[in-house]
């Protein structure tokens, strides 16, 4: 059983640029969620995708957008990068467990630095 | 509003016990606990559901007080491998928030030999 894989692992951008982060979900999981984790903080929910549709969004502006593909992999796109976008971006896939609740399996993240 | 964790940090010797608390101002459906080591992905430890309690590991257990919207994580006979940052993540009751967790700020646990 493969886990969640993310790419790239590290990247550096400048203010105003655009970035695309990619995520392959764990086998058997049909839901992908994206989280932003600033240094020393807990992950913060960006949005979730289920069956290729956005299924909920946190308090992030529209310049954060995403996609989910038929194979359940996903992309996170951020336009007009700002310095505060520097963070670790975590992708998590999930599927209903025996308890009925969704347990998240996280990838190792993509570390974005905006200069 | 994110749940509040306490303490912010704890230092232990191997074999000692620790308790990490997580408190929310909202009615909860579930509480998830994760551990994250430096530079690594958060790893799922256990989930506690409204109306039930689930233990994920032998020496790591947790409780969930639904009335107080509080959860506690108990680590007994700590091992060096327990070191890391522990996060609670909550799902609110009454909504369709499956998998959309609100995380606390984390508790840094350090275990020394």
Number of strands of chain A: 11
Q: Unreliable stretches of chain A, pLDDT < 50, 5 or more residues?
A: none
SSE sequence of chain A, one letter per element: EEEEEEEEEEE
Q: Give the distance, in angstroms, between the N- and C-terminal Cα atoms of chain A.
A: 38 Å
Which class best fits the helix and strand makeup of chain A? mainly beta
Strand content bin of chain A? over 45%
Number of continuous helical runs of chain B: 0
N-to-C series of helices and strands of chain B: EEEEEEEEEE
Shape field of chain A: globular
Q: Compute the gyration radius of chain B: what is it? A: 13 Å
Mind telling me the C-alpha Rg of chain A? Answer: 14 Å
What structural class do helix, strand and pairing data of chain B support?
Answer: mainly beta
End-to-end span of chain B in angstroms?
Answer: 37 Å
Could you describe the largest sheet of chain B, including whether it forms a barrel?
6 strands, mixed
Shape descriptor of chain B: globular
Strand content of chain B is over 45%
Please state the oligomeric state of the protein chains shown: heterodimer
Mean pLDDT of chain A: 92
Structure description:
The complex is a heterodimer of chains A (115) and B (113). Chain A has 115 residues and is an all-beta fold. Helices cover 0% and strands 54% of the residues of chain A. In chain B, the strands form two sheets. In chain B, strands 2, 4, 5, 8, 9 and 10 form a six-stranded mixed sheet that branches. The interface between A and B is medium-sized, with 29 and 29 residues.
Topology:
The complex is a heterodimer of chains A (115) and B (113).
Chain A (H helix, E strand, L loop, with lengths): L4 E3 L2 E4 L5 E6 L6 E7 L6 E7 L2 E5 L6 E5 L5 E5 L8 E10 L5 E5 L3 E5 L1
Chain B lengths: L3 E3 L2 E5 L4 E6 L4 E9 L6 E7 L10 E6 L4 E6 L8 E9 L9 E2 L3 E6 L1
Parallel strand pairs in B: 2-10
Antiparallel strand pairs in B: 1-3, 3-7, 4-5, 4-8, 6-7, 8-9, 8-10
Can you tag this structure with a few keywords?
heterodimer; A: 115 residues; mainly beta; 4-stranded antiparallel sheet; 0% helix; globular; B: 113 residues; 10 strands; 52% strand
């Amino acid at each position: 059983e493969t886990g969640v894989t993310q790419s790239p692992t590290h990247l550096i951008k400048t203010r105003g640029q655009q970035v695309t982060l990619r995520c392959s979900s764990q086998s058997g999981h049909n839901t992908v969620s994206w989280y932003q984790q600033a240094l020393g903080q807990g992950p913060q929910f960006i949005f979730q995708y289920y069956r290729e549709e956005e299924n909920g969004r946190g308090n992030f502006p529209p310049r954060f957008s995403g996609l989910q593909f038929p194979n359940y992999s996903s992309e996170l796109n951020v336009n007009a990068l700002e310095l505060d976008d520097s963070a670790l971006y975590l992708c998590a896939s999930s599927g209903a467990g025996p308890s009925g609740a969704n347990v998240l399996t996280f990838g190792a993240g993509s570390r974005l630095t905006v200069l | 509003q994110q749940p509040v964790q306490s303490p912010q940090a704890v230092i232990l010797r191997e074999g000692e016990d620790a308790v990490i608390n997580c408190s929310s101002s909202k009615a909860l459906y579930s509480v998830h606990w994760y551990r994250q080591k430096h530079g690594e992905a958060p790893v799922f430890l256990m989930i506690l559901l409204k109306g039930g309690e689930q233990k994920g590991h032998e020496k790591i257990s947790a409780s969930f007080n639904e009335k107080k919207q509080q959860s506690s994580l108990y680590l007994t006979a700590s091992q060096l491998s327990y070191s890391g940052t522990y996060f609670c993540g909550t799902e609110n009751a009454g909504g369709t928030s499956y998998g959309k967790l609100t995380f606390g700020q984390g508790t840094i646990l350090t275990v020394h030999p």
